[in-house]
């Protein structure tokens, strides 16, 4: 099987097989909806299911090669005939989600969360398009089989493939998790180059075939620079749509503040992670709130905040690897869910969430104009203003505080405080990101790469 061949299993068996056990079929019918058709369905009786299946046979006969779904997901059913027999309900338009590294540890948690409806909602049908490689293909088939056997009502389509140009076609979301892990003795620069190449190729594929408004969340490390490379290789997709996952760091930081303050973690808000998803990341205790009050008012131990808290969050991934023997997978999947939810539901009033994003110069101009005209920017302790709301180098993917109206888009939060401690650390993580960017200049179209990484540069999982 060539690398560009999407897998097409012998999946038409359900179309031609007579009705099997009634109960199983009732569930199966819920799984099968026409591709991209207006969705209306279904809690059917066996009779209705039979009609649906007959409809399916017709559609499938007319368009035998039109579906590349895995197994049960390759079957097309026409549910129009169903409406008189079923208690129908309205469904939203299908959302199509591609996941790379789909046979890996993180995906093994994430895919089932996506399929269950806990991410996009219980009225949102989804299609999962799983990207693998020769290396992972058998495992990917295993993943797809488990998804089949889970009978998730909202999971309408599953396909697996090895060619990003096929897998990314028309997708609304790209969750890019696949990346080579850094092995013993491997230089970080080499990792940047190998994974950067993967993300350059995937960026080109997104640019060519994905929905123009696709939202991209890069998880594979080093995720900020991978996201930058992906973005630069996809010039037809708004730069704003690219995210590097720093939500896990935000969640880790909230947990530590809650522990110290002796409160449950839902009391912690306005938690920003600034910068790189690496050991230079900056968990911001200056702006964080506990029960609506500044964290520094609740936790008066500044030394703890500056030293222990900061180091614990920066190194949490490494400590976990020492305990588990592998990097965080379940909590990473949860944080991907949180990151998506933060974009598809409105941010609670006054709060924000962290995401690795890049500055959009036009939007920044508008924001700055508004800030100045409203008198929102007064001095250094309020907001830095050298060219963007915070004065951070542009053209990197930098974790910052964001707010969303729930429409998939976001704005940067500008009502943040800054002090010398925070600013110094932001400059350090910024320097690391700029150095990483220079290492991958050959992949971003910015000339010849020159790699001179700061000595203590490490992924969160390294210690
Ligand atoms: N941003 C964050 O907060 C976090 C990021 N991570 C990162 O997420 C990524 C995935 O983690 P996890 O799912 O646990 O990893 P796994 O090792 O379980 O899976 C990674 C997948 O990456 C793919 N891959 C791509 N290129 C290579 C390669 N050269 N060698 C080996 N595998 C490759 C493989 O899929 P295939 O063969 O199909 O391409 C593999 O299934 C890692 O980069 C990790 O560092 C982890 C935790 C937190
Ligand atoms: O370094 C890794 O692979 C793991 C990682 O990102 C984390 O745990 O935050």
TrEMBL record:
It is found in: Plastid, Chloroplast. It comes from the Eukaryota. Its EC number is 1.1.1.82. Gene3D superfamilies: Lactate dehydrogenase/glycoside hydrolase, family 4, C-terminal (3.90.110.10), NAD(P)-binding Rossmann-like Domain (3.40.50.720). InterPro entries: Lactate/malate_DH_C, Lactate/malate_DH_N, Lactate_DH/Glyco_Ohase_4_C, Malate_DH_AS, Malate_DH_NADP-dep_pln, Malate_DH_type2, NAD(P)-bd_dom_sf. One of its GO terms (biological process) is malate metabolic process. Pfam families: Ldh_1_C, Ldh_1_N. It catalyses: (S)-malate + NADP(+) = oxaloacetate + NADPH + H(+). Residues 96-243 form the Lactate/malate dehydrogenase N-terminal domain. Its main location: plastid. One of its GO terms (cellular component) is chloroplast. Keywords: Chloroplast, Disulfide bond, NADP, Oxidoreductase, Plastid, Transit peptide. GO terms for molecular function: L-malate dehydrogenase (NADP+) activity. Residues 246-358, 381-442 form the Lactate/malate dehydrogenase C-terminal domain. Belongs to the LDH/MDH superfamily. MDH type 2 family. This is malate dehydrogenase (NADP(+)). It comes from Panicum virgatum. The lineage of its organism: Eukaryota, Viridiplantae, Streptophyta, Embryophyta, Tracheophyta.
